Amino acid sequence: AAPVMLSRFRGALVGSVLGDCIGGEFEGAVDVPLDRVLQHLSALEDETRGDGILQYSDDTAMMRCVADSLLTRMAFEERDMARRFAKEYNLAPGRGYGSGVVQVLRKLASPHLKDVFQPAQAQFGGRGSFGNGGAMRAAPFALAFKSRADVSRYSRLGAMLTHSCSLGYNGAALQALAVHLSLQGALALPKEFINKLISEMEEMEIDKTAQLDAKALNLSDFPYCSRLHRVKELMDRNSVSIEEVISELGNGIAALQSVPTAIFCVLHCLEPRDGLPERFGGLERTIAYSLALGGDTDTIACMAGAIAGAHYGIDSIPQSWQKSCEAVEEADDLARRLYDLYCLP
Ligand code: 8NA
Ligand code: MG
Ligand code: MG
Fold it and tell me: First-to-last CA distance in the chain?
């Protein structure tokens, strides 16, 4: 039976935190053999393992700020969200933030700042960041807003507080829309799911600024659409190697090299796959597969975990995994409260 909506909400935020915590082990690794991934995952089931709880990173720290802000304000309010990012960074600066974004977070802490979008716009010589930091924290937007237009609009604005390059904020909208569709059960029809995302991104990428940014970065027009078309091609293939996925879609810290990749991980793992244990459910397969790609594993697993968690629901997530990761209960609580907000007439 399909999971009920509350289970999907909880699955989305808990899946996101698990991806971040579990994926942290391999962040930045070039080659991650599948047996190392499976070893890492089976250690989660061992209650006697000595290395303690897996810590979350910037991905979850900022996701929690987004959720807290949306819940407190019962709307998107940029100054409140910006203030929470700055405060969180100040309290725990060692959570593995991107090297550029910390400058934005320091500027956002100033009480004299007039325009909260300005620090992000000053990044990288005025071009803004195209990193995946806006996308990694985008899931709560899909839990706070009902309409696709609102999910898209507010996830972009929320990302712009740190990422003013269109590749950065459009990647955030793509991630939020993928969670939104997954919550609606759209992954039951994978082809339609990817087609819907492509048509959403066509609308977004026709924008003048998106066209100029793509050109400035030597990318083809409609960069997200073309990656999503590659996702579709890879979905049609019987067997795909890890190397092909990395070369076609990427596994890096740029949103363009990680959001479509996370979406592919979810789609690819809708079915059992060679090399992954038969006892694994879909969410476990998705996280395992995300880690095996290497690169920005915490963030790719975090984004894939949110989309997969929204599809399979909270009951698909092993208790042992939940107990192994920091702040799962807090994420679950945020998801329940966002659900209550979502259900308000
Ligand atoms: P960010 O805005 O600092 O961007 C990340 C990096 O991308 C920057 O430090 C630059 O190297 C590069 N970059 C972004 N935009 C431009 C541009 N316009 N021109 C040239 N270079 C650019 O931070 P973020 O919040 O987007 O970072 C997200 C990622 O960093 C997450 O994966 C997060 O977990 C973290 N992180 C990743 C790794 C890793 O090895 N993959 C390690 C530590 C931290
Ligand atoms: Mg991180
Ligand atoms: Mg990362």
Answer: 27
